[in-house]
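Hey, can you fold this one?
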Amino acid sequence: MLATGDYSTHQIRQPDASQAETTTPRVLTIISSVLEKLVARNDRLVEVLSEQRNGLNCSDSSARLGKSLHAFHGVRAPNISIPKYLERIYKYTNCSPSCFVVGYVYIDRLAHKHPDSLVISLNVHRLLVTSVMVASKILDDAHYNNAFYARVGGVSNAELNRLELELLFLLDFGVTVSSRVFESYCFHLEKEMLMNGGGQKVERGISPVAVGVDDVTEISVEDTQSCSPPQPQAVD
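Sure. Predicted structure:
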């Protein structure tokens, strides 16, 4: 099991408020870049497959795409970008950067375990907030509850509870990440950073300053097709 002391709490420092507001961990930037490229490629693939189905007059619109990630699908892609969404989670939840690495590991595992179900713009935000939340429960000694993550992520508490269970079952409850696997993903992300003009190591255990629930600016992610819409929330 990925021990908390190995990555998430070892030599943790608490930056002052001004630093927490202005500094985004490098690991968030590179994970955002990797996921944006993946989503853009998969969105194009979905569009091509849709055109092919239309040309063949195929009645089953999901005939060539799996439904394993369907629970994470929204009616439309959220307006907030992947980088801004990750920055929001980091700003408000006080989770360590290691949680984002492990959350990325979970999403990568899903992609390999269910290769016919693509990570696309309709599901990536829900996958991110759910994966990071689960990772924080594994890694961090102190973490916020589901209701707080739901508010930060722009979904209802009931929906996030359901998505957490969905993620765990899709992973066969395989949320253990060994130190070797963790370091291999860090190395992969550092290689991506190098290819994008950066040469620094990704952060292993720096946490932002904690905030209260009343300090969270409200957002809303469009609700999934399979459950009732949440109450409208102002988009900052």
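The radius of gyration is 18 Å. Let me know if you want another pass with a different chain boundary.
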